Amino acid sequence: MSKKSDVIERRKQKIEDMKKEGIVPLFPNTFKISHTIGEIFTIIEETPDLTAENSPVFRVSGRMMAVNRFGKAAFIRLRDRTGQLQAYIRKDQAGEDQFALFKQMDIGDFIGLEGPVFQTRTGEWTLDVKSLSLVSKAVRPLPEKYHGLKDPEKRYRKRYVDLMMNPEVKDIFIKRSAIIRSIREFLIQRDFLEVETPMMQPIPGGAEARPFVTHHRALDMQLYLRIAPELYLKRLVVGGLERVFEINRNFRNEGVSTRHNPEFTMLEFYQAYADYEDLMNMTEDMFKAISNTVLGTTQLTYRENTVELSGKWNRIPMKQALSEIGGVPENMLDDHEALARFASEQGIALSASGERKGKILTKLFDILVEPKLIQPTFITGYPVAVSPLSRRNDIDPTITDRFELFIGGQEIANGFSELNDPADQYNRFLEQVEQRESGDDEAHLMDSDYIEALEYGMPPTAGEGVGIDRVAMLFTNSASIREVILFPHMKPA
Fold this sequence. Notes:
The protein contains 15 helices and 20 strands.
């Protein structure tokens, strides 16, 4: 039997012994706190003349993270959601019964303590325990103190232990929550209405991606977990809800990497009487607002780079970026065969049936340009072939009024002026269907109901999707998307 198993068995036996002796309830629901640990420290800071003699009596509860026993006394480290506090218990003060109960407690137990605070000789504020309670008994031991829980696979699988042992992980998710709250407030202040759209859809739309498939028994129909809420949100714009947004869960049956998780969170918002340039301006303002709220500055560190969000962000057409940043010869950019040869020379795999020029351009961009876009940069002028829902550019109909935002070498957002011509949208869907029949299982399906909605008329509109997980990576300096998702998908252990 392993050392850990021995500890678990001893603790289980301890529980049985305590039940037989009727010492205390092992899982009571009666302990009420008067203060959190954070509130105790706030009172200490705001009371300069605080002493052991005039200290209030505090009732506090949390997980016992460490204990240093010596004879008839002990120091305890107690942690709740707001911080950590040292406590001191003495047998002669707490009493025989209370000290006997304390001796039955283990690291990891939730305990309740009551008493005033005092300063030790080293100046540390400490709770002087007058009484204690067992709030919840831990059967399993916490990871060993000095090594903790560091292995990423174990951390992601046992996130609850990760949060116990690594306080910096909790800080990531506190920031993530603040990011989402900041986005929501930013949009609501601009008269956007928060809405909810279906997660199970009869036709997966709004992006080029492979969906998850399910079956509804009562309706006897195949459904898809949504890959994006876009087409439903634009239906709402048709219906007269001119500014809408949704912070939503999307599902794409694709690979897993440091930047991709099959289940992820997106912000999508749509604004009538706006174009893609309006959204670029708005996106700059939104990210600066997030940064000031979450970090208190517009400067952040992502991996080894300092990123500055203030000022006007770069805006570069895709072909210009491929030439100037990616090193693609300018005379190849409009030559399909030359681009295909160049991609092959770069080791970029193309489908056996051949790729359209627009697809080759975007594949070259992903490899040769994207990793180099560290400072905030909008890339514009995406080909029509990879933008089935975007409005064609009035001057160059081979490209669309679309942008993608890159920060820290990865895509953060995607936005465009919406295609609101039902005939053009129908033909774009037909092209996507042809690509799907040629073997592209990520191509868009035909959505006849969406075409019908457009036939009722949609005002000129711009829409954008923002990857919340990647935004969280950026503002918490996390190299992997798994660091910012509480329960990322994993293969069975």
